[in-house]
Amino acid sequence: MSKFWSSIVHELTPYIPGEQPKISNLIKLNTNENPYGPSPKVLAALQAEVADSLRLYPDPASDRVREAVANFYDVASNQVFVGNGSDEVLAHVFNALLKHEAPILFPDITYSFYPVYCGLYGIAYETVPLGPEFEIQVEDYMRPNGGIIFPNPNAPTGRLLALADIERLLKANQESVIVVDEAYIDFGGESAASLVQHYPNLLVTHTLSKARSLAGLRVGFAIGQAPLIEALNRVKDSFNSYPLDRFAISGAVAALEDKAYFEETRHKVMATRESLVAEMQALGFTVLPSAANFIFARHAERSGAELAALLRERNIIVRHFSKPARISEFLRITIGTNDQSSALIQALREILND
Ligand SMILES: *Cc1c(COP(=O)(O)O)cnc(C)c1O
Asked: Collapsing DSSP states into helix, strand and coil, what is residue 217?
């Protein structure tokens, strides 16, 4: 604490990102990074940016990225907003579209950054309990609100909400914006971007961090009708005109254009997930159905905290949330390579047999 702080700083409870340990030799299954590197075309595009042109500012509107996103999703480029990771995009979304009199709604178990943005911008919120199987029940959101946001698939559960349910909610909720955070959609769901033409209050956010293996490059985007995008641009241009640097712009374009690599790696991740789920179940774990690049699992007899600690002794890091109580026995495990999966299963077998 310091007398030099603005009053709001005293009130903030910042987000705590998953650990990025400095130790090598670690099997890192805690932050949902992709185990496969970015497309070789991305690496070539980044190398081409190492040039004298770095003395010049990048394109403030990142036109090439917006066009690549527009092509991929078959929308217009004025329906696309890009930012420095989807965390930044989400920050602008909270500020530009979710700050109203009525509280916004999001699930009680979800991405823990949402309440942090509410704290930063002074946005009132109410959490909506997940159903008995940890599912989002859209009926529970059909009440007056200042906006609705949830990840699809949800994090940290991995559970997918069907597009038909999202559409049902959009029809019932036309007075506020519904934000669908699709950080993990490419691992088993269908994007709601196809609904944007029909619903002026739908905003879909996305990231290149997970399915396109570019967590280190920091690129995220949002898709929605032009008036929503304009709100985001007004906030962005009151904050930082150049959220994407020259590397991020070129790398993002190359990643979005290399569909073959994207398809290959996301399918490898999904295949590894399916075999990991079966092996975990054989070891006595209950695994929630996952459409993401992670699974959420609990063991019938062993505590989540204990298992996380014992895995760590074996140089395997997974994520454990001690709160809320309903998920305190679960482990969130990122899908790695097949070799990493085998090492995880081997370690769990040793731990459980001890
Ligand atoms: C990873 C993640 C993000 C943030 O992605 P970045 O683009 O890396 O900032 C946003 N939402 C959810 C639910 C995530 O899991």
From this structure: coil
**pLDDT average, residue stretch 35-41:** 97
In the DSSP assignment, the letter for residue 226 is H
- For residues 276 and 204, membership in a common domain is answered with no
Same domain, 90 and 231: yes
Distance 59 CA to ligand 1 centre (A): 24
* Amino acid (1-letter code) at residue 71: N
Domain identity same for 265 and 253 = no
pTM: 0.97
CATH number at residue 312: 3.90.1150.10
- Report which ligand 1 atom has the smallest distance to the Cα of 210: 1
Q: Tokens for 160?
A: 């997918």
pLDDT at 24: 80
Q: Are residues 155 and 297 in the same domain?
A: no
Same domain (yes/no): 182, 277: no
pLDDT band at 16 (very low <50, low <70, confident <90, very high): confident
Helix (H) or strand (E) holding 342: helix 338-353
Q: Which of 241, 258, 275 is the last residue of a domain?
A: 258
Examine the fold and report which residue of 224, 241, 258 is the final residue of a domain before the chain moves on: 258
**Ramachandran sector of residue 218 (left: φ over 0; alpha: ψ -120 to 50; beta: rest):** left
CA 179–ligand 1 middle distance (angstroms): 13
Q: What is the DSSP letter of 156?
A: T
Residue 25: pLDDT band by 50, 70, 90 thresholds? confident
Q: Which residues form the domain of 85?
A: 40-258
Average the pLDDT over each of 21-30, 34-43, 228-237 and give the range with the smallest value. 21-30
Count of the separate structural domains present in the chain:
2
The predicted-structure confidence for 98-150, as pLDDT tens digits, reads as follows: 999 999 999 999 999 999 999 999 999 999 999 999 999 999 999 999 999 99
d(CA 260, CA 181): 24
Residues lining ligand 1, judged by CB closer than 6 Å?
85-87, 111, 151, 155, 181, 183, 207, 209, 215, 220
Q: What is the CATH number of the domain that holds 56?
A: 3.40.640.10
CA of 150 to the centre of ligand 1 (A): 12
How does DSSP classify residue 84?
S
